[in-house]
Specification:
single chain, alpha/beta, D-Maltodextrin-Binding Protein, domain 2, Alpha-Beta Plaits, 3 domains, 6-stranded mixed β-sheet, 5-stranded mixed β-sheet, about 35% strand, globular
Length: about 280
């Protein structure tokens, strides 16, 4: 049996459920139920706060977990980051009031007051800069703290930066980039290595398929070399001979979604026929 801890709510909850489901690990979600079995072998799932997951994995109460990279770094615990999951992306930044000059703040104050939900990351960041800070730990509404005189700066997560702008704040420095990640207990990596590697492979398959399409077409022999130049694929296109009256080949390639339109237009102009674009659920190299 292997136990995976996942967020019980918040911005990482639904994307995590979707990722596991697409990977073949379906979860029966019931209101207020804190643990459940999954459809995949012997995997048990527990629902906990995202902030608690590093501690739960570190202690061995869960073998693996999904939470934010920022939360893992803030915890300072010895867990292994196995995989970045390509959702929940944000930046941890330093911000001040719109009219303030950050250099003036650094120079005129002996000790700078900083409000944040990330005291450990913040302290280490400013220690490296040689700046003396007073950390004011908050659990929400960080943006209001400079406006009411509680702090000089804030350190907070942003995605678009709209909330900062709405509160007359501006970004002055970036500390780190974050996203959802899969972490593991170091002991479980040894004792349950095979099943953890299987789970990593399943998740990677879904992540690799994100924004990818399988483009297929029939190509007359005389334009095959030209078609190859516009359909490189991951390791070159797959080419197979078609049984037809005239020499014809089937060409298949995995293409980034953003490039599909251009590939189709160019291929059609060259002379490709019967072009198909197919969604990809999983891509395992």
């Amino acid at each position: 049996m292997i136990t995976i801890a996942i967020p019980n709510k918040g911005r990482l909850f639904e994307p995590t459920i979707n990722l596991l489901s697409k990977s073949g690990i379906n979860i029966n979600i019931e209101p207020r139920k804190l643990f459940t079995e999954s459809s995949y072998k012997d995997i048990k799932v527990i629902f906990v706060r995202a902030k608690d997951i590093p501690e739960i994995v570190y202690s061995g109460s869960a073998d693996i977990g999904i939470t934010g990279y920022d939360i893992v770094i803030e915890s300072g615990l010895n867990v292994k980051v196995l995989l970045k999951l390509n959702y929940g992306k944000a930046k941890l930044v330093v911000a001040c009031k719109e009219g303030d000059n950050i250099k003036d703040i650094y120079e005129r104050k002996k000790r700078i007051r900083i409000a944040t939900e990330f005291p450990n990351i913040t302290k280490k960041f400013f220690e490296k800069k040689g700046i003396d800070v007073e950390i004011i730990s908050v659990s929400g509404a960080t943006e209001i703290m400079p406006l009411i005189g509680v702090s000089d700066l804030i350190v907070d997560l942003v995605t678009t930066g709209n909330t900062l702008r709405m509160n007359n704040l501006k970004i002055v420095e970036e500390i780190l980039e974050t996203e959802a990640c899969l972490i593991a207990n170091t002991n479980s990596l040894e004792t349950k290595k095979n099943i953890i590697e299987e789970i990593v492979m399943l998740l990677k398959g879904v992540i690799n398929a994100t924004n990818k399409k399988l483009v297929m077409m029939n190509v007359p022999e005389e334009i095959l070399d030209e078609i190859k130049t516009i359909m490189p694929g991951l390791a070159g296109p797959t080419v197979a001979k078609v049984l037809s009256d005239k020499p014809m080949y089937a060409v298949h390639a995995v293409v980034d979604e953003k490039d599909v339109y251009d590939v189709i237009i160019k291929a059609k102009k060259i002379g490709a026929k019967d072009i198909l674009v197919v969604p990809i659920e999983r891509l395992i190299p």
